[in-house]
């Protein structure tokens, strides 16, 4: 596949260079959202540990009186745990293993595809500069969808955590 008519090799090279810069930026966004998820999971784990510790004999949540305070504590705890699940979903590797081998012949940016390629065949693909931009463009779209979903999960994680913590604090006040 060659560049559209009127598009020279220099323009194609600039497009590929720009695509690689975007690829790097998306990679950085992925690392940042993973760090945010780790932070959220740390908060949620600490909150869960605190709730468990404060539920022991003689502590504030040990003898909650009335269904209202208990319900708030249980609901808050559940929301915190739901938040933790969303944080874990951010950092779970997305390998798309069942499709990798079938997709490998037309892709060479993602390591999951590369492991199914032969070195000489990959070298030939990389030499054909007209194949780089479409492959890289597809990868950018896939990566962007993954990063979007990760950011959304971090948002949900923190929202559930905040709501859960608020309910637990209200239960503590009512105790």
Count of helix runs: 6
Rg, alpha carbons: 24 Å
Q: Which strand-content bin applies to the residues?
A: under 5%
- Low-pLDDT stretches are none
Structural class: mainly alpha
The quaternary organization reads as single chain
Q: Helix proportion of residues, in percent? A: over 70%
Question: How many angstroms separate the termini?
Answer: 71 Å
Total strand segments: 0
Provide the domain count.
1
Any overview of this molecule?
By secondary structure, the protein is an all-alpha fold. The chain has one domain. The chain is 77% helix and 0% strand. It has helices at residues 9-54, 67-91, 97-103, 111-114, 119-127, 132-174. α1 (9-54) runs antiparallel to α2 (67-91) and α2 (67-91) packs antiparallel against α6. The mean pLDDT is 89.
Write the layout of secondary structure elements.
Elements: H1 9-54, H2 67-91, H3 97-103, H4 111-114, H5 119-127, H6 132-174
Helix pairs in contact: 1-2, 1-6, 2-6
Relevant terms:
single chain, 175 residues, mainly alpha, 0% strand, elongated
Overview in brief:
This protein is an all-alpha fold. The protein has helices spanning 9-54, 67-91, 97-103, 111-114, 119-127, 132-174.
């Amino acid at each position: 596949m060659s560049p559209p008519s009127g598009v020279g090799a220099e323009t194609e090279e600039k497009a590929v260079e720009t695509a690689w810069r975007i690829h790097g930026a998306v990679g950085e966004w992925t690392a940042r959202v993973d760090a945010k998820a780790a932070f959220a999971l740390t908060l949620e784990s600490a909150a869960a540990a605190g709730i468990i510790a404060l539920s022991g004999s003689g502590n504030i949540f040990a003898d909650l009186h009335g269904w209202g305070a208990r319900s708030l504590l249980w609901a808050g705890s559940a929301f915190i745990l739901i938040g933790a699940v969303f944080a874990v979903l951010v950092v779970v590797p997305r390998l798309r293993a069942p499709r990798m081998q079938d997709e490998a012949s037309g892709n060479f940016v993602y390591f999951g595809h590369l492991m199914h390629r032969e070195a000489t065949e990959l070298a030939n693909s990389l030499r054909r500069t007209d194949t780089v931009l479409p492959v890289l463009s597809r990868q950018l779209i896939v990566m962007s969808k993954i990063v979007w979903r990760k950011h959304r999960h971090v948002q949900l994680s923190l929202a559930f955590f905040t709501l859960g913590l608020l309910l637990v604090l209200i239960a503590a006040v009512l105790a």
